[in-house]
Design brief:
Length: 188
């Protein structure tokens, strides 16, 4: 992914709760996912799963003041995860930039999903699709994803994340289709 994103490419999430829709970023998801060879449907569905809190930069700054270890950006990325992606892929931005630049946040999430995909074991349980395992990895980390792939059952929070991921799948596909590009995952 050599192309740097421009914060002006996409709008800032709204200040009012309930006004944020990940579908507004479908074009950025498609471009970033294509550049990294990651399923755009996976990325869009993760964004829908991570839309549980307001993502306006001001609200995220206030949230960080109250909870310093909070995640940032439309993809809710934690600092340690971002720093890992930054080292691996040479990202020039800072973790704090995730809250101000949705395109940068999406790009970082796509790169993390790509890294997770590369660490997914070839032999795995058939209980979950590849995209489901990657989404679980996005939520719980690489080590847990690999355990789920071996058949270790996820805990209640991860099961809830997976239920929401499955629920948001069709909504995400519609958002990508409305952007004019097929959304089916090549990984499934």
């Amino acid at each position: 992914m050599s192309r740097q994103t421009d914060a002006r490419e996409v709008g800032t999430p709204p200040l009012l709760p309930g006004g944020y829709d990940p579908a507004d970023y479908a074009a950025v998801v498609l471009r970033s996912a294509e550049e990294a060879a990651v399923s755009p449907l996976l990325v869009m569905t993760v964004l829908h799963n991570e839309a549980y809190k307001p993502h306006h930069p001001l609200l995220e700054r206030l949230w960080q003041w109250w909870k310093p270890g909070a995640s940032f950006g439309v993809a809710n990325m934690h600092r340690a995860t971002f720093e890992q992606v930054q080292r691996t892929h040479g990202l020039s931005g800072r973790w704090q930039d995730l809250r101000d630049d949705p395109a940068f946040a999406i790009r970082a999430a796509v790169l993390y999903l790509k890294d997770l995909d590369q660490s997914l074991p070839q032999r795995r349980t058939r209980r979950y699709t590849r995209d489901e395992l990657l989404a679980l990895g996005y939520n719980t980390g690489e080590r847990n994803m690999r355990a789920f792939a071996r058949g270790v059952p996820p805990g209640p929070m991860a099961r809830s994340y997976l239920r929401r991921f499955r629920h948001h799948r069709s909504r995400s596909a519609k958002a990508l289709a409305a952007c004019g590009t097929p959304s089916e995952s090549a990984h499934e």
